[in-house]
Write a structure and sequence with these properties.
Layout (H helix, E strand, L loop, with lengths): L9 E3 L1 H10 L1 H21 L4 E9 L9 H8 L6 H11 L2 H11 L15 H8 L11 H12 E5 L5 E8 L2 H58 L11 H36 L7 H4 L2 H20 L8 H89 L10 E5 L12 H27 L3 E3 L5 E4 L5 E4 L12 H10 L2 H13 L10 H11 L3 E5 L4 H16 L4 E5 L5 H6 L8 H5 L10 E2 L6 E3 L6 H5 L5 H11 L2 E5 L5 H7 L6 E5 L5 H13 L5 E4 L2 H11 L1
Parallel strand pairs: 9-13, 9-14, 10-12, 10-13, 14-15
Antiparallel strand pairs: 1-6, 2-4, 2-5, 3-4, 7-8, 11-12
Length: 722
C-alpha cells in the first residue's frame, strides 16, 4: 500500500518506475523472447509473397521513315504533360486492359484469384452474422478482377515519365509474367489506337481530296477564262501585257529624252565655239569629222610654209600672198564644215524631240489601257486567291493522306511508350521478411511489457509520492533527492510601492519596519513564502528585466542567488547572472573554467563583450564571471556597467546581478533608474541588518525590495551538485 492519503497532492516518482522495470527485467526479457518466437513462427507459417516490376517510359515515337520535322512536331505535343502521364497510369488500371490480361493468362482458373470460392471458417461465420458481405454474390469475373487489383500497383516514378507496374503473387513466375503481359497489352492497345486513327484519317481524306480536286480545277478554269476575256495576258508569268508595254515605252521615252538633251548640249557647245571664234577642234563632234581633220591638216601645212617664207621673203611677196589666200580659204572651209556639223546635231535634237512626243502620246494611251487592266485585275486576283487556297488545301490533304496510308501497317505505328525494364522472376520473397518482423515484434513486446509494468506500479500507488508545499525539492545530477527544510525566517519581503508610500506619510520608518517584522514572525514554518522558489515565482510574474541581489552575509547568500538563477532557467526563462562579488562565489559554483574572462576584464577593456558570456555547467542559465583583471582598476569604469545591463536586458528575460555585501551607494552606480528588483539574500535574519538595509534602500528610492531565505541549504545543495 502507498503512504499517500486521498486528499494529498502527489507526484510521479520516475525513479521508482525505473526501479520497478529493472526489478522485473527477467520477466520482461522472457516475454520479449516469447513474442519474438511467436513472430518468428508466424512469419515462417505465412505463405511467401513474391513481387516483380516492369517499367514503361512514356515518350513520343515515330517510324524510322518519318521526317525530323514530324518527329519534332510529335514531341511538342501533350506527351510531356504530367496530366498525360497520370492518364496513362489510369489507363493501365482500366477494366478492359485487366480483363484482356486475365483472359490471355487464364487467371480465372487459378485458386489464388478466387479465394472467395474457398473461404475460411472465420469468413463463413462473419458472413452468417451479416458482418461481412458474401463474396459469392459477385460474378466470378468481378471476383477475379478484385483479387487482381488487390495485388496490382501502378504508379508514376516521381520526377520522371516512367510508369512502374508491380504485381504480388504466391507464384514467382506469375509475379513476373503479369507485369510483362500488362505492358505488352498496353503497347498493343496504344499502337492499335494509332492504326485506327490512321485508318479513319485515310477514309475521311479520300472523298475530301476528290472534292478538292474538282474545286481546284474549276477555280483555275475561271482564272484562265477571266484573263482571256479581259486581255490580262501574262508576259513572264507575273506581269500583264499592258503593264509590260507601259514599262517598255517608259524606258524608251527616258532614253529618247536623254538623247535629245545630249544633242542640244552638243549643238550649244558648237554654237558657242563659232560665236566666240574659239578653236572648235577640241569638241568631240568636230574632232570626229574626217573632212575637218583633212582641212586641219592642210591648214597646218600652209601655216608652216608661211612661217618658213616669212624669214626670207617680204610680206608683199606674191608667194606669201598666195599662201595666205589659200590659208584663208581653208579656214573658211573649216567654218563651213563646222556649220554643217552644227546643223546635223540640231537635226538630231529635233528628231529626238519628235520621237519623245510620239512616245508620250503612246504612253498616255497605254496608261489608259493599263488602268482598265488594273481594275480588271481586282477580280482576277480574287479568283487567283480562291484557286491558290484550294490548291494549298489539296496539297496538305495529299501529304496527310500519303502519311496516313504509309502508316497503315502495324509496324509503322509504334506506341508512344516503350519498356525500359522487364519484370524478372524474383528469387527472394517480398513478404514476409522474417528478420524485420522478429525485430519489430521483439521491440514492441519489450515496450509494451515495460509500459504494463509501469502502469501496474502506478495503480498500486508505489510510484506516487506526496508533494510537501512547505518544502522545496531539488534533484541533483546523481538522481538523489533531498528536501531543503523551510527557514523559520521571521521576516518577509517588504517590496510594494504602497508600503513605501505609507512609510513616507507616517514618517516613522523604524516603527513601521518593526511592525512588519513582528507580523512576519507570526508566519508558520510550513508556509514560507520567502524561499528561493517563492522569489523565483515572484520574479517570473513581475517580468522585471533587472534584479540586484545583495548578500550581506557573504557566500551563503550568493549560493542562494545561484540557485535562484538556475530555478528561473529551468522554468524556461532566459536568465544571466553577473558576478560582482568580491569572493567570486557564483563563478566558482557555475563556471566550467574558473579563469574565464569576466566583467572585470570587460570593464578594463581586456576582453570583448561576447567573450565574457559563458554557460552554466548545470543549467541553461548564462554567466558573466568575476574575471581576472584588477578589481580596483575595473571599478573605475563601473559607470559603464549600466550600458552593459541595458544591452543584456534587451537580450534576456532577466538579468541578475550578484553584488555580495554591497551598500546602497554601490547599487546606485549600477542602475540608471530605480525600477529594479532588490533581493536581500539573508539565510539567517538579523533584525538590525534587515531594518538598516530596508531603511537605506527605501530612502534611496528603491521601493521593490524582496527578502529571500534558504541560503545555507542552497549552499549545501550546490556544493553537492558541484
Amino acid at each position: 500500500m502507498s503512504g499517500v492519503s486521498r486528499d494529498q497532492d502527489v507526484d510521479i516518482d520516475l525513479g521508482q518506475l525505473v526501479r520497478a522495470v529493472w526489478a522485473r527485467r527477467l520477466r520482461i526479457l522472457t516475454i520479449t523472447l516469447v513474442g519474438a518466437g511467436v513472430a518468428f513462427a508466424g512469419a515462417k507459417i505465412m505463405s511467401p509473397q513474391y513481387r516483380s516490376e516492369t517499367r514503361i517510359l512514356i515518350e513520343p515515337r515515330a517510324p524510322a521513315f518519318a521526317s525530323t520535322q514530324q518527329v519534332n512536331d510529335a514531341g511538342a505535343g501533350p506527351l510531356m504533360d504530367e496530366l498525360n502521364i497520370a492518364s496513362q497510369v489510369q489507363l493501365l488500371q482500366s477494366a478492359d486492359l485487366l480483363k484482356k490480361v486475365i483472359n490471355d493468362l487464364k487467371l480465372y482458373n487459378l485458386p489464388e484469384f478466387d479465394d472467395a470460392a474457398n473461404g475460411s471458417a472465420m469468413s463463413s461465420i462473419l458472413i452468417k452474422l451479416h458482418l461481412k458481405k458474401n463474396p459469392m454474390e459477385n460474378p466470378p469475373e468481378e471476383r477475379v478482377i478484385d483479387a487482381f487489383v488487390e495485388r496490382l500497383q501502378v504508379y508514376q516514378v516521381p520526377g520522371s515519365r516512367v510508369i512502374g507496374i508491380s504485381f504480388t503473387s504466391k507464384d514467382p513466375k506469375l509475379a513476373a509474367a503479369i507485369p510483362n503481359a500488362m505492358a505488352n497489352v498496353y503497347l498493343s492497345t496504344q499502337s492499335g489506337a494509332k492504326l485506327d486513327s490512321n485508318s479513319e484519317a485515310t477514309r475521311w481524306l479520300e472523298p475530301e481530296i476528290e472534292s478538292l480536286r474538282r474545286k481546284v480545277s474549276e477555280a483555275e478554269k475561271k482564272v484562265a477564262e477571266y484573263r482571256t476575256s479581259h486581255g490580262l495576258l501574262q508576259t513572264n508569268g507575273t506581269t500583264t501585257f499592258p503593264a509590260q508595254q507601259l514599262n517598255d515605252i517608259s524606258a524608251e521615252l527616258t532614253r529618247v529624252r536623254g538623247d535629245k538633251a545630249n544633242a542640244e548640249a552638243r549643238a550649244q557647245a558648237v554654237r558657242n565655239a563659232l560665236s566666240s571664234g574659239e578653236a572648235s577642234d577640241t569638241l568631240p563632234d568636230i574632232m570626229s569629222s574626217q573632212a575637218i581633220q583633212r582641212l586641219k591638216g592642210t591648214e597646218s601645212g600652209l601655216q608652216s610654209q608661211v612661217s618658213d617664207l616669212q624669214t626670207s621673203l617680204l610680206n608683199s611677196h606674191p608667194r606669201l600672198k598666195s599662201l595666205r589666200a589659200q590659208l584663208a580659204d581653208i579656214r573658211g572651209q573649216i567654218r563651213q564644215e563646222t556649220q554643217k556639223i552644227l546643223a546635223s546635231i540640231e537635226n538630231e535634237a529635233k528628231v529626238a524631240d519628235l520621237r519623245a512626243r510620239e512616245l508620250e502620246r503612246q504612253k498616255d494611251t497605254v496608261q489608259a489601257n493599263s488602268a482598265r487592266a488594273g481594275e480588271d485585275e481586282v477580280g482576277l486576283n480574287a479568283l487567283e486567291r480562291e484557286a491558290t487556297a484550294q490548291r494549298q488545301l489539296l496539297e496538305t490533304y495529299l501529304v496527310r493522306y500519303r502519311e496516313a496510308a504509309s502508316r497503315a501497317d502495324s509496324n509503322s505505328s509504334p506506341a508512344d511508350a516503350r519498356i525500359v525494364s522487364k519484370a524478372v522472376e524474383p528469387v527472394d520473397p517480398y513478404f514476409p521478411k522474417v528478420v524485420p518482423i522478429v525485430v519489430v515484434a521483439a521491440v514492441a513486446t519489450l515496450i509494451l511489457s515495460a509500459i504494463v509494468t509501469m502502469l501496474a506500479e502506478l495503480f498500486s500507488g508505489r510510484a506516487l509520492r506526496p508533494i510537501d508545499a512547505s518544502a522545496e525539492t531539488i534533484e541533483t545530477e546523481t538522481g538523489a533527492e533531498e528536501k531543503i527544510a523551510p527557514q523559520a525566517a521571521p521576516v518577509a519581503a517588504v517590496r510594494t510601492t504602497a508600503r513605501a508610500s505609507m512609510l513616507a506619510v507616517v514618517g516613522d520608518e523604524e516603527d513601521a519596519i518593526d511592525e512588519d517584522v513582528e507580523t512576519a514572525a507570526e508566519v508558520p514554518e510550513d508556509d514560507n513564502e520567502f524561499s528561493v522558489a517563492s522569489v523565483a515565482d515572484y520574479l517570473t510574474g513581475s517580468r522585471t528585466p533587472l534584479a540586484i541581489a545583495i548578500s550581506p552575509t557573504g557566500d551563503d547568500g550568493s549560493a542562494a542567488t545561484v540557485l535562484l538563477t538556475r530555478i528561473l532557467a529551468d522554468a524556461g526563462r532566459r536568465v544571466i547572472l553577473i558576478d560582482m562579488t568580491g569572493s567570486g562565489q557564483p563563478t566558482e559554483l557555475m563556471a566550467e573554467d574558473q579563469a574565464a574572462p569576466g566583467v572585470t576584464d570587460l570593464l578594463c577593456g581586456e576582453a570583448a563583450f561576447g567573450d565574457t558570456i559563458h554557460s552554466d555547467r548545470l543549467s541553461d542559465a548564462h554567466l558573466i564571471p568575476q574575471g581576472r583583471s584588477d578589481v580596483r582598476r575595473a571599478m573605475r569604469g563601473v559607470d559603464r556597467l549600466s550600458l552593459l545591463l541595458d544591452a543584456l536586458a534587451a537580450a534576456y528575460d532577466l538579468v541578475v546581478v550578484e553584488c555580495g555585501a554591497a551598500d546602497v551607494a554601490g547599487v546606485s552606480r549600477l542602475t540608471r533608474s530605480r525600477d529594479v528588483e532588490i533581493i536581500l539574500s539573508l539565510p539567517q535574519l538579523e533584525e538590525t541588518v534587515f531594518v538598516t538595509l530596508m531603511t537605506e534602500f527605501q530612502a534611496a528610492g528603491y521601493e521593490r525590495v524582496v527578502l529571500m531565505s534558504g541560503g545555507e541549504a542552497a549552499e549545501q545543495r550546490l556544493g553537492q551538485a558541484a
